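Is this the right way to post structure tokens for a design question? Let me know if I should format differently. Anyway, here goes:
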């Protein structure tokens, strides 16, 4: 199906925002990346289900994007459809005594502010995770203190065939920074375990974690968080730092002088600049430690 007929067919779905030829840089925290052929934003789950059926029938390539905070998009962009899950699929509700139901487009930070205000504990480990809950489940986002799967009871997804399915934590097969979502599916809702707690204490804990993060990481600059996974038992940031690679530059991209596992767009960096830095780092760490650094950031549009 050509681009025009695909976007026209999508545009007929109620509750679906459809845009064509959209630069993706503005949707990523790296502020890097060329255009996508189509970007769709569902306002409700039913609209997404209808869109998934159209996309499957069209054979178009798809990429599911949350907050774009763990993502490097190629300079050429993405010749397919980006499904963007944002604030329209957000919201929170306590269920029973110990469960929090969250829309996939809700940001981690908003969940924590709610918990601090209403006195629900158990999620403080997520303080500082930049993404939304859908992306956090898909990538099992985490910190040194825990990962999204630790608190997850189940997630509701829409499959590429447009079916709504509820998957348990076990079915999602979580690993370090990885989940086994059914291929091409989109997380739309998440059920988390919480407990009653003291609002003041929860706030204090979250504030302390955020303050530490501000000290250790380049918070205000354009980056995608940690670029590499930590190799078993080691810190990628420390390996990069010890190798003297902080501050090296390729075009507009630099290895952060604050934390070695953060690559920063200093303004005008291209995806090619970032890839050159990634390659230089990998080569050096391979040569010095015989360690193969694996990417944590997702790459889109490079095939
Ligand atoms: N370190 C250095 N130099 C550096 C960076 C780190 O010496 O340039 C040292 C630190 O001093 C510390 C150790 O290495 O002793 C570990 O560093 P840190 O506590 O910053 O943790 P990390 O392993 O580098 C992990 C997550 C981060 C998360 C932090 C804090 C990964 C790949 N990274 O970083 O997650 O924010 O813990 O909880 O698992 C992300 O996933 O995008 C991310 C930033």
């Amino acid at each position: 199906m050509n681009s025009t007929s695909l976007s026209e067919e999508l545009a007929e779905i109620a509750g679906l925002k459809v845009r064509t030829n959209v630069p993706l840089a503005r949707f990523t925290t790296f502020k890097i990346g060329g255009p996508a052929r189509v970007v769709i934003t569902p306002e409700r789950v039913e609209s997404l289900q209808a869109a998934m059926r159209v996309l499957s029938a069209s054979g178009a390539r798809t990429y599911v994007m949350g907050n774009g905070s763990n993502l490097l998009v190629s300079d050429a962009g993405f010749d397919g459809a980006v499904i963007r899950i944002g604030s329209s699929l957000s919201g929170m509700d306590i269920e029973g005594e110990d469960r929090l139901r969250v829309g996939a487009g809700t940001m981690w930070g908003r969940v924590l502010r709610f918990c601090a205000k209403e006195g629900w504990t158990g999620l403080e480990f997520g303080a500082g995770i930049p993404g939304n809950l859908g992306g956090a489940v898909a990538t099992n986002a985490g910190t040194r203190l825990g990962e999204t799967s630790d608190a997850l009871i189940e997630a509701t997804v829409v499959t590429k065939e447009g079916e709504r399915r509820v998957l348990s934590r076990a079915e999602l097969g979580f690993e370090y920074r990885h989940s086994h979502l059914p291929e091409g599916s989109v997380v739309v809702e998440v059920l988390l375990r919480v407990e009653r707690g003291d609002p003041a204490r929860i706030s204090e804990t979250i504030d302390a974690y955020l303050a530490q993060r501000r000290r250790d990481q380049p918070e205000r600059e354009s980056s995608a968080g940690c670029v590499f996974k930590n190799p078993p038992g080691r810190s990628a940031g420390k390996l990069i730092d010890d190798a003297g690679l902080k501050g090296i530059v390729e075009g507009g991209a630099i290895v952060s002088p604050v934390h070695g596992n953060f690559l920063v767009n200093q303004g005008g960096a291209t995806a090619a600049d970032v890839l050159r830095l990634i390659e230089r780092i990998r080569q050096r760490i391979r040569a010095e430690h015989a360690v193969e650094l694996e990417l944590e950031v997702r790459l889109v549009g490079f095939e």
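Format looks fine. Someone answered above. Worth noting: The two ends are 20 Å apart (CA to CA). The first strand starts at residue 16 and ends at 23.
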